[in-house]
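DM from R.C. (forwarded with permission)

"hey, sorry to bug you on a friday — could you get me a structure for this? deadline for the figure draft is monday and I only need the backbone to look sensible"
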Amino acid sequence: MPDAPSRLMIQRNGEITIIQFLDRNILDEANIQQIGEEIASIIDAAGDPKLVLSFDNVDHLSSAALGTLITINNKIRAKQGQLRLANINQQIYEVFTITKLDKLFNIDKSTGEAVEKLS
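My reply, with the result:
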C-alpha cells in the first residue's frame, strides 16, 4: 500500500520538522508501519534531523507504536539529530513512566516548548 494517504501532518519551522499524528488511536500494525516509514524517510532526507512529534490528537498508543518510537529515536541519534515529544496526554504519559520511556525521550508539555528547546 505505497499509495496510502499520509497518517501525519508535517510542518517545517526553519530546520525543525514538526510532525503531528492524524489518528486518535495508533493501534493498527499496518498504520504504525506506515508512520514509521514516513518518519524514517524524513530522517533520511535530513542532514541533522530535528524532529518534534506532537501527540496532540492521540488518545491511545499500542506497544508496537512505542517500539516504532524507539526505532525512530535510535535512527535520529545515529545521525546526531534531536527528537522531542510533545502534547502527550496523562494516560499515555503514564505508560511512558511505567515503561521508563520518559527517561529515554525528551518530553515537553507543548509543541512550542519543544521547538524552543531545539532552536
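R.C.: lifesaver. The first strand starts at residue 8 and ends at 13.
me: no worries. The chain has a mean pLDDT of 95.
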